[in-house]
Amino acid sequence: MQILRKLLFPFSILYGIIVGLRNKFFDWGILASASYDFPVITVGNLSMGGTGKSPMIEYLIDLLKPNYQVGTLSRGYKRKTKGFLLLDVKNEAKEVGDEPLQFKRKFPEVLVAVDEDRQNGIKALRSLETPPEVILLDDAYQHRKVKAGFSILLTAYHELYPKDMILPAGNLREPAFGANRADVVIVTKCPLTISEEEKNKISKSLAIKAHQKLFFTGIYYEDYFTNGVQQIPIQLMKEFNLVTGIAKPKPLVNHLKENGLDAKHFSYPDHHLFTEKELETLRKESLLVTTEKDFMRLKDYFPPEKLFYLPIKTVFLDAKEEFDQEIIRFAGKV
Fold first, then answer.
1. 39, 67, 98, 211: which could form a disulfide with 134 (CB 3.0–4.6 Å)?
2. Which are the contacts of 58, defined by CB distance < 8 A and separation ≥ 6?
3. Strand order in the sheet with 231-233
4. Residue pLDDT, tens place only, 256-272
5. Helix axis angle, 53-64 relative to 320-331, nearest 10°?
6. pTM value?
7. How is residue 271 annotated by DSSP?
8. Are β-strands 312-316 and 307-309 bridged in parallel, bridged antiparallel, or unpaired?
């Protein structure tokens, strides 16, 4: 792997120069960004994925929906449709993408839309008869044609962006100094017992700027598996097969092992669209457990009693009230 990185490093330099110039053109106003007079919050990362954007979007929805009409806008990665679509709970993942469908089914009262053109998507959402008062942009940190009023940047505990490299030698979509655009930086997937000393070390390595605030979150796994109707306590699930199509399945695998569960693992790439041959292989197994995102893509191919997922959520390890107040204060600019 180290040899491959060295071979790809010259291409990373070229890619970094191109992306860096593009960002500077937006900073200097040579390339235009659309600004808005209502709250737009973007959640994103510098890396290729696996930082926990979906749980963070869900956290923000939960926080804001009691007082605001909330809308979410995603690209709808790997969907087989184009343009703007406003989701219905009856949509399928292949039409709208797995993560947007997850948002809609979990929060049916929230406006959930997809559009690869974020400017057009925002315009379409605001043209609805009952438009959203706050819009959450999912995975749009590099979408500079939209200037969000508040930017949240996520970086995973085990893969902090200062330790990574630009594509293709590494996993960064843009140079690490792109983090300077963020209002808030959140270190995700931290151990729930992370020490203050380690937090301080991470803060120094991230070189947090004066205008930014740093927070730490972890993943809380529920103590049951569910298919949306039935719940099975995790300690009663003895034999099953694990199916994942996410960027970083290792934390989930480790969590299951820590609970004495060591399942056969079918691992696929992030947002994987399952082929009929792959589905036939999985149908031969007795019981399947997957992630909630994968569940959205798989549930139409299996009976409910055969397919379950393990729910997760984001938990703040400190300063939760401070973060909540930051978001509510910004949303109050409606």
1. 39
2. 103, 106, 107, 313, 314
3. 231-233, 224-226, 307-309, 288-290, 241-244, 264-267
4. 999 999 889 999 998 89
5. 70
6. 0.92
7. T
8. unpaired
